[in-house]
Design a protein that fits this description.
The chain is mainly α. It contains 10 helices and no strands. The protein has 2 domains: 4-63, no CATH class; 69-155, Oxo-4-hydroxy-4-carboxy-5-ureidoimidazoline decarboxylase (UraD-like, Orthogonal Bundle). The longest helix is centred in the C-terminal third of the chain and has 23 residues, at 144-166. 26% of the residues are buried.
């Protein structure tokens, strides 16, 4: 776990290797955030990365959301999740769904993707399976614009926690 001083001493390639996976399958965010170094605090690092997301085009933000796997979806079943996603989904209890819960989640995911054109995203580490199912049901009533904003906000929470896992609070 690098300190912030060590993070500030990384080359662009090292920075991308370290933080490229913070945003699921979207290393372009870390590549652009490197330009904002040095970072005074871990929060500055987090805000630099999130600032790239906020400054991105709508198409880039949509691609970021689409890069996320469905919760307990095909990728999980095939063991194709990133290490971080697998750990987060497991912590939320999504690996121990009953057959009925799996069927319900699969149907809700299908309806969500059909309605909005991208997967449902929620910070699994901050939720458990019942809350995730309830939130997914509730968010189906939103507009596409609301859901794109919700997804980006949830991705920000996921990234915040992943950054905290990666950076030592000591300078």
């Amino acid at each position: 776990m690098p300190t912030l001083d060590e993070v500030n001493g990384l080359t662009p390639r090292e920075f991308s290797a370290t933080f490229g996976a913070v945003y699921e399958h979207s290393p372009w965010i870390a590549e652009r955030a490197f330009e904002r170094a040095p970072f005074a605090t871990p929060l500055d690092l987090q805000l630099a990365l999130y600032g790239v997301v906020q400054a991105a085009s709508e198409g880039e933000r949509l691609a970021l959301v689409q890069a996320h796997p469905e919760l307990a979806g095909k990728e999980a079943g095939a063991g194709a999740l990133t290490e971080a996603s697998a750990r987060e989904q497991s912590a939320a209890g999504l690996g121990t769904l009953t057959p009925d819960q799996k069927a319900e989640l699969r149907e809700l995911n299908r309806r969500y993707r059909e309605a909005f054109g991208f997967p449902f995203v929620i910070c699994a580490r901050l939720n458990r399976r019942d809350a995730i199912l309830g939130t997914l049901r509730a968010r189906l009533a939103n507009t596409r614009e609301q859901e794109l904003a919700n997804a980006i906000a949830q991705i920000g929470e996921i990234a915040r926690l992943r950054i905290a896992d990666l950076v030592d609070r000591a300078r």
